[in-house]
Amino acid sequence: MDIERVLIEPVVTEKTNGMREEKNIKYVFRVLPSANKLQVMDAVRKIFDVKPVSCNIAWVKSKTKTTRTKSGNREGQKAAWKKAVVTLSPGEKINIFEGV
User: Fold this and answer.
1) How many CB atoms lie within 10 A of CB 65?
2) What is the total count of domains within the chain?
3) What integer pLDDT is reported at residue 98 of this predicted model?
4) Which residues are CB-contacts of 65 (< 8 A; sequence separation ≥ 6)?
5) 99 or 21: which carries more pLDDT confidence?
6) Strand partners, 86
7) Is residue 15, in this structure, part of any structural domain at all?
8) Does an H or E element contain 44, and which?
9) How does 9-20 read in b/e, with b if 16+ C-beta sit within 10 Å?
10) Which terminus of the chain, N or C, has less C-beta within 10 A?
11) For residue range 19-74, what is the model confidence (pLDDT) as tens digits?
């Protein structure tokens, strides 16, 4: 698997912003469904030049989406996706998130 393709995009929400400001700095990424912890940690190490301590991976379940139209309500599903929470060693940061 290509290391550059493991990380799809960072997840930036109020909760993830708070996780970056804690004592243990954590970053959340959307990753490939076939990626495992070792591949995610290796990708973060090589792309951002930091030393990750640990990685937790979880599936985000799909949600139902309802759209109102003239002919009635239509229901569909948002796709499920896989996320990784990467903890960095103390004192390290990823500069892309910090605006530097």
Assistant:
1) 10
2) 1
3) 65
4) 75, 76, 77, 78
5) 21
6) 27, 55
7) yes
8) helix 37-48
9) eebeeeebeebb
10) C
11) 888 778 999 999 999 999 999 999 999 999 999 999 999 999 999 999 999 999 99
The CATH code of the domain that includes 61 is 3.30.70.330
CA separation for the pair 79, 83 (Å, rounded): 13
How much is the pTM? Answer: 0.84
Residue 95 lies in a domain: no
User: Residue 16: in which H helix or E strand, if any?
Assistant: helix 14-20
The Cα 19–Cα 23 span in angstroms is 9
- CA atoms within 13 Å, Cβ hemisphere of 77: 6
To which residue do tokens 């490939």 refer? 32
- Higher confidence at residue 71 or residue 100? 71
